[in-house]
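Sorry to interrupt, but I need a hand with the structure work. Leave the record below and I will have a look:
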Amino acid sequence: MAVWIQAQQLQGDALHQMQSLYGQHFPIEVRHYLSHWIESQLWDAIDLENPQEEFKAKRLLDSLIQELQNKAEHQVGEDGFLLKIKLGHYANQLKSTYDRCPLELVRCIKHILYTEQRLVREATNVANQGTEHSVMSQKYQQINQAFEELRLLTQDTENDLRKLQHNQEYFIIQYQESLRIQAQLSSLAALPPADRQLREPTLLSKRATVEAWLTREANTLQKYRLDLAEKHQKTLQLLRKQQTIILDDELIQWKRRQQLAGNGGPPEGGLDILQSWCEKLAETIWQNRQQIRRAEHLRQQLPIPGPIEELLNELNSTITDIISALVTSTFIIEKQPPQVLKTQTKFAATVRLLVGGKLNVHMNPPQVKATIISEQQAKALLKNENTRNDSSGEILNNNCVMEYHQTTGTLSAHFRNMSLKRIKRSDRRGAESVTEEKFTILFESQFSVGKCFLDDTVTLTFELHTLSLPVVVIVHGSQDNNATATVLWDNAFAEPGRVPFLVPDKVLWPQLCDAINMKYKAEVQSNRGLSEENLVFLAQKAFSSSSNNPDDYRSMTMTWSQFNRESLPGRNFTFWQWFDGVMELTKKHLKPHWNDGAILGFVNKQQAQDMLMSKPNGTFLLRFSDSEIGGITIAWVAENPNKAGERMVWNLMPYTTKDFSIRSLADRISDLNHLLFLYPDKPKDEVFSKYYTPPLSKAVDVSDFCFPISSLSLSFLFFCSPDPILDAEGEFDLDDTMDVARHVEELLRRPVESQWGGQQS
């Protein structure tokens, strides 16, 4: 169903959020009348950070305007006449707005579509997500209720402040009246005694009345001031509580989701809701700060002895702390730099200030600087130790000015072309390798926010910094898999608020299973993750165990050393290196077969034998090699040529990426005629035929050369005489035969003239 049709069914706050997406920058009528066209365009194919994409955006803008004009032309009747005028006006308006910046139109529409999809998805999931969604909705409702309470409290203190100001102004008028009376009394001394006696009693009476009133009103004003201060204290307590929920719960959870997304977890989600909450906080904090400053101004205007001065100083200090915490905490990394960072390679990152738009920071946009620092330097920074100008390397293109996007209300800095020129490593600890050393990208900025409170100008200056997720620096692609292991372990098992970048040295096996399953599904881009049987196989490999019972492993722990320092027994590679090899092979060459369920994969040689011996001859299965990183082997059951009536399981030497770059798995299975049924009983063509390479057209008529040969028929000739090419365990030694097969394949791919030129001459 079209998103727009579903969006029109939204209700309540979701409908309000959807409506707020539209305005003069993009009228809702355009969305309505061009809904099908808008949703059918490839907006996501345009990279907003690449200026070279502007011509694509311009083409979309021109098409949008043309669609609007066409729609306008087809309107008839009385109602159609008005709509025709309106749509024509919108076409001109959009052209005027975006003609010079078409990428902003793309940014605007992408934001609209993303938000609509999110709102529709959230509304659709209400009935399906049960208790979890109910808890989330309840939490959001509580946050919104707290904002409403804060709004009412702020409005109440605003009213009290105005009342206080009005009463104080009247008090000052009366005080001036008392001074006038006193001046009149003083002037009586120059009058004759008779006149003085006539006028003095009246003036004395007036003075006494006014002074009595001033005394009472001074006490009343002091009470008003104290009451107002107490109300502000209550507001600030609620503000702190609300800010803690949003920054320490919701924002930290978003950062945790972002970290898990680095391991292949679901996307962390957009920041729109968080930004709207943070902007509401900023607005409420600033309103209360203004009120406190105005109360201070009133106190200075009319000093009355009492505790109010100390109370106002305390309130001002508290509100400054609150807004400082909000600003510094909402300076975040929206798009993390790559966590495995290769020197001399371009990389990107995006930082964002969630309250930047609300504080009008973009009026004087600040600059952000990126620096790479070590784990020790990160620890010192968080302890507020002086680490200024410290770095562990040199990053090119590491300065960027923050940009404000009016359509989305976001203030962000997009680092598009950073490159790590050099790295300075620390002294490593014990067995730690270079691929275990963690760095981080430090993003720093500074800006000031100025506001005028009556005749007093107050400027707040903020120094901001935020750290990226841990980064492992490599200089060669061969270090990638070990660096990825470090990142995986850190992302999976880091605790919120940790000292950089501490992680546990050992974790429960089920925790590790969750992490590697998440990574596997993401890398292979498959909904088919690791089954319980697969995880038991991995546990057997990790712990050198033979138990098939999953419960035996639930309380077992795996150390970092077992994961990626110590080699597996009898092998020259670690557990992670073997698993990473499986992922890479599957991702590059076996993904469709894994998704089809054609690859069992995580089965050892003995298990394969037990499974196949009960099946008819020619039954085969595919399993990942135990002995080689990134290898897959074919095991099948057939007669033993050396012993009549006896059957045995055969295993091909493993295929690797190198083999599949020459000929695919499906084609290789097709070539091997003795493979008949994929375990347990599916005819192989039924499973693999859709992946076979279509036969070549008659580019070369090999009959003319009396040389009938297919790309693997020569290698299969060797299979017909098994003794010379079987090892002691019944495995084919394809070192020689595969060399011949590859030579034939390469020969068949050459142009006819060079291939057969010698014979023709």
